[in-house]
Structures are given as C-alpha cells and as structure tokens.
UniProtKB/TrEMBL annotation:
Domain Endoplasmic reticulum metallopeptidase 1/1-A TM: 427-645
InterPro entries: ERMP1-like_C, ERMP1_1-A_TM, Fxna-like_M28_dom, M28_fam, Peptidase_M28
tRNA-binding keyword on record: no
UniProt protein name: Peptidase M28 domain-containing protein
Membrane spanning stretches: 46-68, 393-412, 433-455, 467-493, 505-524, 530-551, 563-583, 603-621, 633-654
Region (Disordered), start-end ranges: 1-38
Broad class of the protein's primary localization: endoplasmic reticulum
Bilayer topology: Multi-pass membrane protein
Alphabetized UniProt keyword annotations: Endoplasmic reticulum, Glycoprotein, Hydrolase, Membrane, Metal-binding, Metalloprotease, Protease, Transmembrane, Transmembrane helix, Zinc
Biased composition (Basic and acidic residues): 24-38
Similarity field: Belongs to the peptidase M28 family.
PANTHER family in alphabetical order: ENDOPLASMIC RETICULUM METALLOPEPTIDASE 1, METALLOPEPTIDASE M28 FAMILY MEMBER
Entry-linked SUPFAM superfamilies: Zn-dependent exopeptidases (SSF53187)
Species, as recorded: Clavelina lepadiformis
Length: 730
C-alpha cells in the first residue's frame, strides 16, 4: 500500500494538477477502503446477533418438535373423522387388562375378546357398501432371524386377531395391511408399546367403515398380532401361513420406542418409493427423515420391529412408524396411559387415516400397480413437521453433483480470475480448510477426554435425567474449542488479515469442505445426502450467486446488514440440522439406560454432541472473524462448563429420577430360576435355585440402589450336573 501511494504522488508531480487530483481520488478511495476494513461488529453486537439468532432457532425447533394438534371429541367431529376420544377409550380398555405377555390370559383371551367385541360394534354401524370379516389365527412355526447375533425362534398356538374390510360389490386382489401387536413385555402395562397402536387402528377402522361417500377400491387387513415381544412371532405366523397374506401389496406398521410425542417415519421400502411419496403427500402432519432410516438399518440401535418379518419373509414393502419421545419408560412399569400426551393420538390417527384413504380409495393409488412408479429409490425429510420433502435418488444424484462440483468451480474461478486474490488465495483456502478440520479434531478430542474424566471419576450419566446438562457439560466446551481454534488461526496463520476478507476465506473454506463431503456422499449413493444438500444449496444460491456483490471484499454494505443477510441465508441450514440433532438426542439419551455395561454412555453422548456442534455451527463460525472480540463470551462458556463438571462429579449428579416432571428409572432385570436335573434313570440328581441380576446401563451396581445385601453376596459358581452326570454315566 505504501509503495503504491508513493508512485502515484511521484507521477502527480510530473504531470500536473489533473494527475494530482486523480492521485487525491485514489488516496481517498484507499483511505475509505481502510475505514471499511476496520468496520466490524462490536463484541456486544456479535453476542446479540448470535444469541438472538440461535435462541429464535431453538424455540422454533422446540415448538415444532413438541407441537401436537388439538384432540377431537366424538361430539365435535364428523363420523368419518378420526377422534382421539374414541381411541383413548380403547387405550384405557387395553391397559386395564393388565400386563399382556404372549400366552397369558390377558393377551390371548381378554385382549382378543375386546377386539372382537369392538369390531362387532363397528360392524353394526358400518356402511352397507363395506364387508367386515373377522378371524382368529393360532399359528405354529419357526424361523431364523439375523438379530443380536442371530438365533432361531419356535412358536406354537400363538393368537392373532384379524379383520378384513373390503368392498361389497366387487372382489379386490390387492390389500393394504395395518399391523400392531396386543402383547406387552412382562411387567409393563404397554400403553405406548403397543396398546396405543391397537387403539388407533380400531378408531381408523371405525372411520373407514362408516364412510358412505367414498367407496373402497381395495381391501384393508387389520392385524392385531399377539406375539411381537417374543421376537416378532405373530407377524411371521400371519405373513407365512394365513391365506389373506397373499393379497397384501403393502403394509403400515405401528410401533413404539418411547411414549407419546410424534410418530416418526423411520423405515420405508425396500424399494417401492411410492409409499414414502404417498405419506409425504397425504399425511397432514408428516414427520420423518431418511437419516433415521439409514441409522436404524445400520444396526446401531438395539431393536427391531415386524417390518423385518414382512420385508424378509413376505417380500412386501411398507412404512414403519414409531413413537420415540420419552424413551425412558419403554418396556418399564411407567409405560402407562398418563405418559400419552393429549394430541399425540390425534396426530397419528389423522396421518394414518389420510394415507390409508388415499391408498385404498383413490383411483390414483399405486397399491395395485407399484411397478408403475419408475423413479427408483427416494430420499425424504420433513421441515418442522409442516411438510415433507421427497427427492428421487436419480434426481438427488444430479442435484448433489451440481451443488458439490458447482461450488468447487466457483472457488477455482475466484482463485484464477480475480487478480487481486490470485497470488495467495488458493493457499489461504487450504490453510483455512486445515484450520477447520483441526478445530473439529480438537473439539471431538476435548469432549471425549472430558467424558473419559467424568466416567473414570465414577459419575457417568449425570445427564440421564437432565438432558439440558449436555449443553453445559459437552456443548459449551466443544463450542469453545471451535472458537479458540479460529482465534488462534486469525492471530497466527492469518495475522494482520482484514477481518471481512478473513471471514470470506473461512466461508469459502467451509464451502470447499462441505462440497467435497457432499460429492463423497453422492458417490456412495447415500440418501441422507439430501440433508447436506439442503444445507449447502441455499448458501450457494444466496451468497455465491444472487448476493455475491454484497459479500464482495470491496462491498460498501455495512457489517450489520451483511450479518443480517447471512443469518437469513443460514435459516434453512440451521433449522434442518438443529432438528436432526434434537431428535438424535431425544433418542440416544434415554437409550443410554439400556446400552449395557460395555459402552460408556458419556462417550456416546459426548461424541454425538461434538458432531452436532460441527454440523450446526460450521457455516456460522466464519462470522466470528467479523466480531471485534469474543473473549468474555468464551470466559462465560468455560465458567458454565466448569460448573457443570463439578455438578456432575458431585452427589447431585445422580443420574436417575422418578418425579412428577421426569421419569428416568434405572433398569435392572431380576430373574428367579429353579432348576431340576435328571439322570438317565429319570431320577432327580440335583435341584437348586438362584437369582440372576442383569443391569442394563453402564453404572451397573456402582450406584447403590438400596440393598447392600445384593452387592455383598458372593458369586456362587454354577455346579451344573457334570459330576453327577458323569457318575451316573459310569
């Protein structure tokens, strides 16, 4: 800058006043340029922007996650509408039967009789244009399943209760299957798993049966299977043995991994993307993501549903729905009616009834000819539960290619054709990308080391009954490390660099990294690449195409306006990733109560938190270079983090709670076993008994749950029958 200014003044002395005026203009331009380079946000302005933006985003996501529609009553709704009041009556009746393990009187007799009586009442008020058939099936069979290491399952005379609703005037060879299960695990009322699904299907059946305006074109089979908790036996008995199964062209399965809240679409297919498209198009409250499907089918979550049986043994495509909120009560005594919040039944019923009506009543339904949809697999995700976006895989591949290669070409053009930036801009992008990746590694390592420290200290899972603690315990330390890495780079690698130019360098570096990542996901044909595409695409279009002059280095736009526009462009990106992070936490935090004693839960939640920070904050972190200072913000985060760690390792960090506000119990299996051994002569050779204790979470017996006698009892080796058997044999 100094050399350029001197040469202008020298020329002005030789060429007279005109050149001198030109020199003065250039100097003023350069002086103005220097003033603009100094124009950055103050610490208060930066803190205000970030606080307001992420607070608003937080409350928008919070509202969308927990919003439930108003329940409908029988008196206010039309007869063809789903009503939560009607479904709740069925729910209370099912739960009042008590625990319903397969083979019990409560399940095989009482629940089956209640369904039969309810269907008889529906049949009495049904439209004359529908035919309702009712059957009880008691199949016997066996099968193998590749789950938890793989095993074989044998069942005999289990109880399935079935109904078929079909048009009277014509026979259909195409049927939609709606499946739920009446049984519950031993010791649990099973309100959400799966009495609520049975109640929903009975109310859906009533609404369809009384409809005199829109005739059925295809059959509906309602399967109330009586042995799901015995590892999917009821669904296998139906799909492999019942004659109605031959007509099934698609199914909808209702399950639960929690209680209440929204039902999420977490599996579709295999293939047959028209089902996901039907749900996205016709469900009034769609909620689901392709990421949940890929996560569940990866085997990370230790659970399975009847979806597997219909898919593998029936070769039938379907949709898998599940309640997942409040997973603490899953398969426990606390899975009762009180946990089913008002509105969640209405929400599920509205969605299922609308989709079922389309599939069995609309002439545009693809149920009779699924092969007519020829767009291949489909990726889907909802946006705040308002609508669901669906993109065929081939179209997704094209869009991924455009918005992964396009930004790379844009960055290459900046490095080659902009003479002002050509000498070092390419190297700066590489340095910026290296800084970003290093900050990610540092963030993950910091959080994991903190999780290891807390685990070694003996107080793991402090967040279990306090999910908000994750923000202070792992969120703030991880975010502080990301910010510190940027500040270190700004004061060393990019020392004396203009703040806004540095912000642009880091934005372009982030764009380079995520475009490369999107390209790789597209190469692997992962459908969850849709989520990354929806994050990268708005930023590319707004910042790099439509408003690129606003963010140019020579732009006259004020810092406040720039930041406001940039945060506006970030809205879709932040909401989508924030929503996915929120749902992931709601799933995995309660899941820590049943991960077993091998996997430290703090490591799982810490890693999940670090990844969430990397995804949610990655594009917004470039803006900290346009803020004068963030030292007191860092100091506040560190202070809150230290307080959270001290709280966690103290006695106040006890992980379990059962109060009016939250139910987060410790899971413990206690089984009493009596054994009698016989020799070859049929005489008793040995009799003994014992108690088998099995904890489901990492702390195990490290937490005093009341009885020291259990902890202090010596381990007794299994005597078996080896000695006795050998003697008898000899």
């Amino acid at each position: 800058m100094h050399n350029s200014s001197s040469s202008v003044r020298h020329r002005g002395q030789r060429n007279g006043s005109q050149t001198h005026r030109h020199s003065h203009t250039i100097e003023n331009h350069q002086g103005g340029k220097q003033e603009r380079k100094k124009e950055v946000l103050t610490q208060k302005q930066g803190a205000l922007f970030f606080f307001v933006y992420f607070s608003v985003t937080f409350f928008v996501v919070y509202y969308s996650v927990y919003y439930l529609p108003k329940p409908k009553s029988l008196s206010d709704a039309k007869t063809t509408e789903f009503t939560e009041e009607g479904a709740r009556k069925h729910l209370h009746s099912f739960v009042s039967l008590g625990h319903r393990p397969a083979g019990s009187v409560a399940n095989d007799v009482d629940a089956a009789n209640y369904i039969v009586n309810s269907v008889s009442q529906i049949k009495a008020k049904a439209s004359p244009f529908v035919k309702i058939e009712l059957e009880t099936q008691r199949p016997t069979g066996s099968f193998t399943i590749d789950f938890i290491g793989g095993f074989a399952s044998y069942y005999a005379n289990i109880t399935n209760t079935l109904m078929r609703v079909s048009p009277v005037d014509k026979s259909s060879h195409h049927a939609l299957l709606l499946n739920c299960h009446t049984d519950s695990v031993n010791g649990a009322p099973g309100a959400s798993d799966d009495a609520i699904a049975c109640a929903v299907l009975l109310e859906v059946m009533r609404a369809i049966a009384v409809d005199r305006t829109h005739p059925l074109l295809h059959d509906i089979i309602f399967l109330f299977n009586g042995a799901e908790e015995n590892v999917l036996q009821g669904s296998h008995g139906f799909i492999t043995q019942h004659p109605w199964a031959k007509r099934v062209k698609a199914f909808i399965n209702l399950e639960a991994a929690g209680a209440g809240g929204k039902e999420i679409v977490f599996q579709t297919g295999p293939s047959n993307p028209w089902l996901a498209l039907a749900w996205a198009t016709h469900a009034p409250h769609p909620f689901g993501t392709i990421f949940a499907q890929e996560l569940f089918q990866s085997g990370i979550i230790p659970s399975d549903t009847d979806f597997r049986i219909f898919r593998d043994y029936g070769k039938v495509p379907g949709i898998d729905l599940a309640y997942m909120k409040n997973g603490y009560v899953y398969h426990t005594w606390y899975d009762n009616v009180d946990m089913i919040l008002p509105g969640c039944i209405q929400r599920a019923g509205d969605n299922i009834l609308a989709v079922v009506n389309h599939l069995v009543k609309s002439p545009f339904s693809l149920l009779p000819d699924p092969g007519s949809y020829r767009h291949g697999a489909i990726a889907f995700t909802d946006f705040l539960g308002i609508f669901m976006m669906t993109v065929p895989l081939r179209m997704l591949s094209i869009m991924n290619f455009i918005f992964s290669v396009g930004p790379l070409i844009y960055l290459l053009r900046r490095m080659i054709f902009q003479s002002e930036e050509r000498p070092q801009y390419g190297k700066q992008i590489i340095k910026g990308a290296a800084t970003i990746v290093s900050s990610w590694v540092a963030c993950i390592l910091t959080v994991l080391l903190l999780a290891i420290f807390i685990t070694k200290f003996g107080n793991s899972m402090a967040f279990y009954s306090r999910p908000y603690l994750v923000v202070f315990l792992y969120g703030f330390p991880g975010l502080a490390v990301l910010l510190i890495a940027h500040l270190i780079a700004a004061s060393t690698i990019f020392k004396n660099e203009d703040p806004w130019r540095l912000e642009t360098i880091f934005f372009d570096s982030y764009l380079f990294i995520w475009s490369t990542f999107l390209f790789q996901l597209n190469y692997l044909q992962l459908q969850s690449s849709l989520i990354i595409l929806l994050c990268v695409m708005p930023l590319c279009l707004i910042r790099c195409v439509f408003l690129k002059q606003v963010f140019g280095f020579n732009s006259d736009v004020s810092a406040v306006v720039k930041v406001s526009i940039y945060f506006t462009a970030l809205i879709p990106h932040t909401i989508i990733l924030f929503s996915h992070s929120w749902v992931s936490m709601e799933l995995f935090i309660p899941l820590c109560g049943r991960l077993g004693t091998d996997v430290p839960p703090d490591l799982v939640i810490g890693l999940l938190t670090a990844l969430s920070l990397i995804f949610v904050f990655h594009f917004s972190l470039s803006l900290i270079h346009a803020v004068k200072s963030i030292r007191w913000i860092l100091a506040l985060m560190v202070l809150l983090s230290v307080g959270a760690v001290c709280f966690s390792i103290s006695s106040y960090g006890f992980p379990y709670a059962v109060t009016n506000d939250i139910v987060a119990p410790k899971r413990l299996y206690v089984q009493h076993t009596s054994r009698t051994f016989y020799g070859f002569d049929k005489k008793i050779t040995l009799e003994d008994s014992g108690i088998w204790l099995n904890t489901m979470d990492f702390p195990g017996f490290k937490i005093d749950i009341g009885s020291k006698a259990v902890k202090e009892s010596p381990l007794m080796p299994c005597r078996g029958i080896t000695v006795k058997y050998t003697t008898e044999s000899v």
